[in-house]
Amino acid sequence: LEEKIKKPAWIKAKIPTGKKFFEIKDILRTQKMHTVCEEASCPNIGECFSYGTATFMIMGDICTRRCPFCDVGHGRPNELDKDEPKNLAESVAAMGLRYVVITSVDRDDLRDGGAQHFADCINEIRKTSPNTKIEILVPDFRGRLDIALDILAKNPPDVMNHNLETHPRLYKQARPGADYKHSLELLRRYREMMPHIPTKSGIMVGLGETDDEIREIMRDMRANNIEMITVGQYLQPSNSHLPVLRYVTPEQFKQFEKEAYAMGFTNAAIGAMVRSSYHADMQAHDVLEE
Ligand code: SF4
Ligand code: SF4
After folding, report:
1. Helix, strand or coil for residue 191?
2. Residue 25, beta-bridge partner list
3. Which of 47, 72, 77, 177 is 20 to 30 A from 14, comparing alpha carbons?
4. d(CA 246, ligand 1 centre) in Å
5. Contact present, 45 and 38 (Cβ < 8 Å)
6. pLDDT reading at 34 higher than 90
7. What is the position in ligand 2's atom list of the atom closest to the CA of 69?
8. Cβ neighbours of residue 51 under 8 Å, at least 6 residues apart?
């Protein structure tokens, strides 16, 4: 039996408080929308909701992939809900969000990987909340990259995010079905097509990577013109998920942050509790023109 590494004191969720937090919870119940914030029991939920940021999961909650760090269910996905873009836009407006992150499960079953559905969501939100910034955190669109990039270039978000998650050495075990080079290519090509849209990517630490492997990923990101980076501690969602192999210390995170800026990232959100969408609005603040 593997012995679990003890959680250090700096891994702490803040207890949600504040009027806005509870208002947002209520709206989500009424609108029946899925947020990653609630479903992944994200430790930052109090902060993000109070601040007017949330991450929505579209195209259902069943994924066609099976990554052993991830808590999303897998199997045969549901039919696309044609009303979802409108419902999402209504939720964003009702919640008064300043910044919204839209993400999805992998939809390897769809011809365009779900790109048009992302585009429909962007367009509906633009109609009802023209001042809300939209970040999309997309799946890798493997086998559908050309069509997906084309659709998303015609309907651009404010920030294009796709996570590399971990070092390529660990892909087989942590990200089966994905390909490191392909993911880099997605971001590089989108930036070539849409030079004014910042690209963003993130990784988790604690899955077995070394410090130098983290630096290697950061260099690969820069070599592919990725402008924004997130690095956070992996936490095991349950005993049947990949174990945490180490907790990176706050000092080491600080060091990576320094190195990231030295490599030329315009924004580096690096720390134990950082998630891809943590304070996404502030991350984007420096790179988006008002
Ligand atoms: Fe939601 Fe992301 Fe904030 Fe977590 S970090 S609460 S997933 S917006
Ligand atoms: Fe989870 Fe994404 Fe992997 Fe699907 S592709 S299992 S949603 S990490």
Report:
1. helix
2. none
3. 72
4. 23
5. yes
6. no
7. 8
8. 20, 98, 279, 281
